[in-house]
Design a protein that fits this description.
With about 150 residues, this protein is α+β, with helices and mostly antiparallel strands. The protein contains two helices and eight strands; from the N terminus they run H-H-E-E-E-E-E-E-E-E. This is Apoptosis regulatory protein Siva.
Length: about 150
């Protein structure tokens, strides 16, 4: 006896296994839009906490330009501006982490250093902080960039 024919052949869709993980589930348009809006909200809240810096549209700081590269600034409305000035350090006097007056900076991470906190690399002969120096195979101090 022959098999009877399927009466629902027009509606038949072949089934296949599809794995839907949490990443695919969370990457829909609504959730991504909410994440984007929350990120912008946090960005603007953080910008309101900063001290006010006056950025004028017509002043361009030519000393900071390097070749064809330009510094972009975020305006009050969140748009990018091509002119402005960088925020200067609030404290005029920099101090070392030990509390004494600084004399130089770490060549790797640019932390202020006094003469007691400086460590000299034997290879590049530059001053580094204690976090950026390692003990080499000979027992001498080597900076992070020269260590390999």
């Amino acid at each position: 006896m022959a098999k009877r024919s399927n009466p629902f052949i027009e509606d038949f869709v072949q089934q296949s296994k599809i794995h839907v993980g949490m990443k695919q589930f969370n990457n829909n348009e609504d959730k991504l839009k909410k994440v984007y809006e929350r990120t912008l909200l946090l960005l603007f809240k953080g910008a309101k906490k900063c001290p006010p810096v006056i950025i004028s549209e017509d002043t361009v700081n030519t000393s900071e330009k390097q070749g064809k590269m330009k510094q972009l600034f975020i305006g009050k409305d969140g748009g990018l501006m091509h002119s402005g000035s960088m925020v200067q350090s609030m404290s005029g006097i920099k101090q070392c982490s030990c509390g004494s007056k600084d004399e130089s900076q770490c060549a790797y991470c640019e932390v202020s250093l006094c003469c007691d906190c400086q460590h000299m690399c034997i290879r590049c002969e530059r001053q580094h902080c204690a976090c950026c120096t390692m003990i080499g195979s000979e027992g001498a101090e080597v900076c992070v960039s020269c260590y390999s």
